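Attaching the record inline, Q. Sequence:
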Amino acid sequence: MRIGEPRKVHFTTSIRVVFALIAVGGVALICAGFNTINNDQIFRHNSEALDAHGVRTVGKVVSVSSTAGDGMYPGSTSLRVRFTDQSGRTVIASAGFLGQPTMRVSSSVGIVYDSKDPELIDLVQNRSYPQSTSEDDATYLGIALVVLGVLVTLTFAFLPFLRLRRAPTPPAWYPDPWRVADWRYWNGHQWTADTSGASTVT
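Structure, as predicted:
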């Protein structure tokens, strides 16, 4: 009887499958995090461009499409707007906002466009890109998702393959493995000569 040897922790196939699925979820978190960071950087770039060299003008609505909202989400509206930029070129660009449409095809709408990239536009009355982009919430959220995803992936992808061992048996009196006495003392590393109780040898 080798009572003090730490025993290996064995992972069944079903546990390995569960861990693999959780690890895949971790990879999905990493991707979502990078996507959030990337979208936030694009949003900031567009907002700063419109603030730095935006030009206001009036355009005509070419098309309107919208998604229905529910009790919490107001839905969204996407517009295609035709206008003439400073160089006299006719441009058709897209803009959107949260909420249901308040304009129709051929309606006039105030827009602001990037003089260096006229296809980047925003609505004057329904700004998607706010004047201030000092909030870092989206970037922080993306970083948090990436870190969480890395931790989850590393933990659940490699844990089943580690040679884990349970803690060794603590020092105490145990039944004598040699049956010389009723009890023999285990010091945490090996059996000692200390025994207790009558011999069980007949």
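The first helix runs from residue 13 to 53. Strands lie at 54-67, 76-84, 90-98, 108-114, 117-123, 172-175, 183-186, 191-196.

More tomorrow.
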